[in-house]
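User: quick one, fold this
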Amino acid sequence: MTCPLRIGHGYDLHRLEAPPPEGAGRSLILAGIPFQHPVGPVGHSDGDVVLHAVTDAILGALGSPDIGQLFPDDDPRWEGGDSKIFLEEAVRRMTDAGYRIVNLDVTVICERPKLGPAKGRMIEQIASTLGCGLDRVNLKGKTHERVDAVGEGRAIETHAVILLERIA
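Assistant:
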């Protein structure tokens, strides 16, 4: 018997550094939206922590291999790659398995940049890629109260929780 509901949790964290030559940071992209910021993620792909966490939430709900297994960071094909590709693959797997989104809740944790001005665009981008309504996607920005690497602006992290339902 196929389960009618499945829940998944995704998490991602990236160190933040200045761009070359001072550091190894890339441009800061969150949920597919570029941000003007003096530091960016250190990572193999574009380092979009939001799309990485959402991708892993879907894959986790399906019991599929995770983002690191499907898109390994030692594969040159994914060097600087657009994280939207990863999310699109997770959505394809979800659809092929006969599921759709009930709702998604995302929490982005960073001191800066403030997400408020871009929150609507971020939700629109996520919902568009997921193929669901805006009312099924929630996104929150939180700080880490200046505690640890995230609170000091040296890292950024995201949690995502998703509920899928079997399509009748």
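User: anything notable?
Assistant: The domain at 5-166 is CATH 3.30.1330.50 (60s Ribosomal Protein L30; Chain: A;).
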